[in-house]
Amino acid sequence: MKIQGVLFDKDGTLIEVNATWVPIYRQILQELFSTDLAGAEALMQKAGYDPASGKFKAGSLLAGGTTRQIAATWWPELSGDALAEKIHLLDHGYTHLVRDKLTPLMPLEPLLTELRNMGLKLGVATNDSHVSARAHMAHVGVIEHFDDIIAADTVPVAKPSGNMIRRFAEITGLPAASIAMVGDNHHDMEEARNGGAGLAIAVLSGNAGRDDIAHLADYTIDSVADLPALLRSL
C-alpha cells in the first residue's frame, strides 16, 4: 500500500537528543536533589546515561521512556500524588531551560514542507508528555505541519503498544498500513509492528547505532533528511 502518512518520533529523530537533554537533566537534577555535577550524573546513569560517551544509551529510559518512568527511577520511594507532583514538575517546571537548549537535528521547516507537498499527513509520536511535545514543536516553529501530536499521556499505553499508530490512523482517516513510523529507538520500530504500520523506518541520528536497530526496520537511513528521497523511491 502507498505511504500516505508519516509518524515521527521526536527526540533523536527531529530533535538532537543529547545536545538538548544532557545539559537540561544535569541542571534539573542538581537543583532538585541539591547535589553537584557528579551527583546529577550518577542519577542520570540510573536512567540510562553513559558518562563515557556523554550520551544516553540506546533503548534506555532517558532515550525513550515516559516522564513517569523516569520520575519513578529518580524517586522510587514515591507513588500516587507525590509521584504525580514530580512528573508535573519535570514536564512544566523547566520550560525556560528547554527554550534555551532545544536543538533541532536540522532545519525542519523545509523538510516538513517538502513532505506535506508530497501529499503526506504528518504526526509526532513521542513518549514525552503532550504539553511538552507541543511546546517543543511550537518552539522550533513547525507545529502547524502536524495533523496530530501524540504523547504518552494521550493514549492508553505508550510506545511500543501500537496505540499511537492506531490513534494517528483514526485521526487522519488513513489505514494503518499506509503509515510509516520513523524513529531512532527499538520501541519506535516495535510501535510500527504492533500498530500495523506499513513501514518501520529507522534513523541513525539518535542514540541507536545501525547494529542496535537496523534489523528491526524495513529501511534504515542516516536521518530524516533522507526521508523524502526514500519515500519517492518506493
UniProtKB/TrEMBL annotation:
Q: Does the keyword Ribonucleoprotein apply?
A: no
Q: Which organism is it from?
A: Aestuariivirga litoralis
The family classification in the record reads: Belongs to the HAD-like hydrolase superfamily. CbbY/CbbZ/Gph/YieH family.
Q: Does the keyword Hydrolase apply?
A: yes
Pfam families named in the record? Hydrolase
Q: Name one GO cellular component term.
A: cytosol
PANTHER family documented for this protein: PHOSPHOGLYCOLATE PHOSPHATASE (PTHR43434:SF1)
GO MF annotation list: phosphoglycolate phosphatase activity
Its pathway, per UniProt, is:
Organic acid metabolism; glycolate biosynthesis; glycolate from 2-phosphoglycolate: step 1/1
Q: What class of enzyme is it?
A: hydrolase
Q: Look up the domain of life of the source.
A: Bacteria
Q: What is this protein called?
A: phosphoglycolate phosphatase
